[in-house]
Design brief:
Order of helices and strands of chain B: EHEEEHEHEEE
Distance between the termini of chain A: 52 Å
Number of strands of chain A: 0
Number of strands of chain B: 8
Helix content of chain A: over 70%
Order of helices and strands of chain A: HHHHHHHHH
Radius of gyration of chain A: 19 Å
Largest sheet of chain A: none
Structural class of chain B: alpha/beta
Largest interface: A-B, 29 and 35 residues
Shape of chain B: globular
Number of helices of chain B: 3
Number of helices of chain A: 9
Oligomer: heterodimer
Largest sheet of chain B: 4 strands, mixed
């Protein structure tokens, strides 16, 4: 891939993951970087391992998690803040990916049982310590 | 003291494990669930002396670093190969995107490809 094409895809990804009140469609993003939608989706996927839609959705869900954990915005406000336009589909998708509804997720991270910082901002080597503690416990249980 | 463990940040650990094992050809050494994340390390086939951890990039500080390096087309890790030309052909056939095709750089040959998880990886061969 040429340097110019690579840079165009980086610009496109930035457009897709940046929160915007009126987000550009994937078609618009493709046009902005001078590719046909088909060309764009194919090249994007080869470089980033996911379609433009998937990358956008992931970014929105990450933003929603942070807002739910750290702000007092209502679930509805969070939904629209991060770029979803339907509360129902936002809640369904959030529950599928995160394993808890937005409200349940907020309750969990605020109940004190979850480590909010660790949950939102895991550190690699702290994962190692936790992983070996877990597998040790499992072995002891056997 | 010795160097035994290094890591790359990835945007999705499941996708990363697929790429690093299924496409690059490394072997899973550890894969332990830790809450929402996993402790995953891979090793080169038949080698156990150096592990690469596939670290989630959920930490915004890490993500900012990763994104900036990627945009500047700077590789974040380098893997040595005995046959760069063969690996290049094999990886390209499986759809891997190269931002730098194999080229001589003094005593080594190098190539750079995208790991589909937000990083560029440099492959190099001595001699």
């Amino acid at each position: 891939m040429t340097g110019a094409a690579f840079r165009r895809l980086c610009v496109a990804r930035e457009m897709l993951v940046s929160p915007a009140p009126r987000p550009a469609s994937v078609r618009d993003v493709a046009r902005t970087v001078g590719m046909s939608p088909f060309q764009f989706i194919r090249a994007f996927r080869a470089v980033f391992g996911e379609t433009p839609y998937q990358v956008r959705t992931r970014a929105r869900l990450d933003a929603a998690r942070r807002l739910l954990a750290l702000s007092d915005r209502s679930v509805t406000d969070v939904c629209f803040d991060v770029g979803f336009s339907s509360l129902g589909s936002f809640s369904d998708l959030f529950a599928r990916r995160v394993g808890a509804s937005p409200t349940a997720y907020r309750r969990r991270v605020r109940s004190g049982r979850a480590d909010v910082a660790g949950d939102l901002q895991p550190g690699c080597l702290s994962l190692m310590a936790a992983a070996f503690a877990i597998s040790e416990k499992r072995r002891d249980g056997d | 003291m010795r160097i035994k463990l290094t890591s790359v940040m990835v945007d999705d650990q499941a996708k990363a494990l697929g790429f690093y094992t299924g496409v690059l050809g490394f072997v899973t050494k550890h894969d332990i669930p830790v809450g929402e994340y996993r402790w995953i390390t891979v090793v080169a086939p038949g080698r156990d002396d150096l592990e690469l951890a596939l670290e989630p990039n959920a930490n915004p500080a890490g993500k900012a670093f990763q994104d900036a390096m990627f945009k500047q087309a700077i590789p974040i890790a380098a893997f040595e190969t005995d046959d760069l030309a063969a690996d290049f052909t094999r990886l390209k056939a499986s759809g891997v995107v190269f931002t730098q095709e194999p080229m001589k750089a003094g005593p080594v040959s190098i190539a750079v490809c995208a790991d589909t998880c937000g990083n560029l990886i440099q492959l190099y061969q001595a001699g």
